[in-house]
């Protein structure tokens, strides 16, 4: 099934306007979703729109209401909402450029692919894409999709552009109340040395295909077994006990011992030699990364 554009409009950079189409970059087909079913009849459960004291109502009787007080609303129709004039409904104007790495990850929300609408738009599209790539910059702007105005970031992605919706500042919870109880005391040098060596041993280029959703796979296996047998079935996900930290009788973890054992388990030998290896030449690091990458794929 061909992908459908979720937005059509233009990117504007100063006096230059480029007709574009935007497509969702993610898909939900990989997940497992469930319907609510009546156990006795096996039929799907539906929900009616019900007004207290009146009962079920038709869809065309429904309008949107903004609550201004308890039980008091300002009523708006879909037509009235659609008539709100916003420049960002059809135009994504790039109003600022920032370093690509300067946006904190927690602001990113959802990714979309951006392509030119036609051959006439492609030349200008490629110029903007290549200029962003050469400058290592990300463009910021706002656009309206599905009745909501989004702050967005635009940057090169292969032959096209990647647009990511961003959370507004008031949507991001500040860390003060969450992190305040964590001590500011720094970790000891010896512990850091072993931890850094372990991180170095497990360092490899990012490869999303090396990771699989084991829970979804187990659910699909369970569904297939029940469908085949028509009876009861059970599927469990094996957990590697060796990855769990060993605790003493008083429930205190020997962190140094556990880190050293982890380093040895991953081929690091003694902790000291493992730590020293992390500062060796880049050529030896390259060999280590390749080994780690292959291990990751086998475990996935």
UniProtKB/TrEMBL annotation:
SMART domains xref list: Ku78
Domain Ku: 54-183
One example of a Gene Ontology biological process annotation: double-strand break repair via nonhomologous end joining
InterPro entries in UniProt: DNA_bd_Ku70/Ku80, Prok_Ku, SPOC-like_C_dom_sf
Gene Ontology molecular-function annotations: double-stranded DNA binding; ligase activity
UniProt keywords, alphabetically: DNA damage, DNA recombination, DNA repair, DNA-binding, Ligase
Superkingdom of source: Bacteria
Composition bias, Low complexity: 272-294
Pfam families (UniProt xref): Ku (PF02735)
Region (Disordered): 230-300
Family: Belongs to the prokaryotic Ku family.
NCBIfam families in the cross-refs: Ku_bact
Subunit structure: Homodimer. Interacts with LigD.
Function: With LigD forms a non-homologous end joining (NHEJ) DNA repair enzyme, which repairs dsDNA breaks with reduced fidelity. Binds linear dsDNA with 5'- and 3'- overhangs but not closed circular dsDNA nor ssDNA. Recruits and stimulates the ligase activity of LigD.
Protein name, per record: Non-homologous end joining protein Ku
Organism: Fulvimarina pelagi
Lineage, uppermost ranks: Bacteria, Pseudomonadati, Pseudomonadota, Alphaproteobacteria, Hyphomicrobiales
This protein's encoding gene: ku
């Amino acid at each position: 099934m061909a992908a459908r554009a979720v937005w059509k409009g233009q990117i504007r950079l100063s006096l230059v306007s480029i007709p574009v189409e935007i497509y969702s970059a993610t898909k939900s087909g990989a997940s497992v979703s469930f319907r609510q079913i009546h156990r006795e009849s096996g039929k799907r459960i539906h929900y009616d729109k019900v007004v207290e004291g009146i009962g079920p109502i038709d869809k065309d009787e429904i309008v949107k209401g903004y609550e201004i007080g308890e039980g008091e609303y300002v009523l708006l129709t879909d037509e009235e909402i659609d008539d709100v004039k916003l420049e960002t409904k059809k135009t994504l104007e790039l109003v600022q450029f920032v370093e690509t790495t300067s946006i904190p990850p927690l602001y990113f929300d959802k990714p979309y692919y951006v392509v030119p609408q036609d051959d006439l738009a492609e030349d200008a599209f490629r110029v903007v894409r290549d200029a962003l790539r050469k400058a290592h910059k990300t463009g910021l702007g706002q656009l309206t999709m599905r009745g909501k105005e989004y702050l967005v970031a635009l940057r090169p992605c292969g032959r096209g552009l990647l647009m990511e919706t961003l959370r507004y500042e008031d949507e991001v919870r500040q860390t003060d109340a969450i992190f305040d109880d964590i001590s500011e005391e720094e970790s000891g040098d010896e512990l850091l040395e072993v931890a850094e060596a372990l991180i170095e041993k497990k360092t490899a280029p990012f490869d999303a295909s090396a990771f699989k959703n084991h829970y979804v796979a187990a659910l699909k296996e369970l569904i297939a077994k029940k469908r085949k047998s028509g009876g009861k079935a059970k599927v469990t996900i094996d957990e590697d006990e060796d990855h769990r930290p060993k605790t003493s009788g008083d429930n205190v973890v020997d962190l140094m011992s556990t880190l050293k054992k982890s380093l040895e388990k991953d081929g690091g030998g003694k902790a000291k030699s493992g730590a020293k290896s992390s500062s060796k030449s880049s050529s030896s690091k390259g060999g280590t990364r390749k080994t780690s990458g292959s291990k990751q794929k086998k475990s996935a």
